Amino acid sequence: DVLLVESGGGSVQSGGSLRLSCAASGYTYSDYYMAWFRQAPGKKREGVAAIDSDGGTIYADSVKGRFTIYQDNAKNTLYLQMNSLKPEDTAMYYCAAGRCLLLEDYCMDYWGKGTLVTISS
Q1: How is the beta sheet containing 18-25 ordered, strand by strand?
Q2: What is the pLDDT of residue 44?
Q3: CA 57, CA 51: separation in Å to the nearest integer?
Q4: Would you state the pLDDT for residue 37?
Q5: What percentage of the chain's residues is helix, strand, coil (to nearest 5)?
Q6: Residues pairing with 19 in the sheet
Q7: What does the pLDDT read at residue 30?
Q8: Are 51 and 70 in contact (CB under 8 A)?
Q9: Rounded to 10 degrees, what is the CA torsion of 43, 113, 2, 49?
């Protein structure tokens, strides 16, 4: 079975950094695009960043220049380095595996359970 397990969430002050990880198993990692989504309380889930097997990336405008998505194919692990964090980055962050390099829910076939990120001002 496909399993995506996120880790690395926590509480930091505005301006701080966090690195999220997503350990993938149960499928051929390079067969899927990987992405990070987030959902803030009371808001719709939104795409944050995505990456293809060759390292090509896309980002939401709100995180460009602050977040970096990357992966270790040998370890089947996806990462999200988040710098210059803002209170509006507070959300549950989800790892996803999908069929296209778009920050859209419909592209994603598999989802993790999420890791919570809280940024205080």
Answers
A1: 3-7, 18-25, 77-82, 67-72
A2: 97
A3: 4
A4: 98
A5: 10, 50, 40
A6: 81
A7: 86
A8: yes
A9: 50
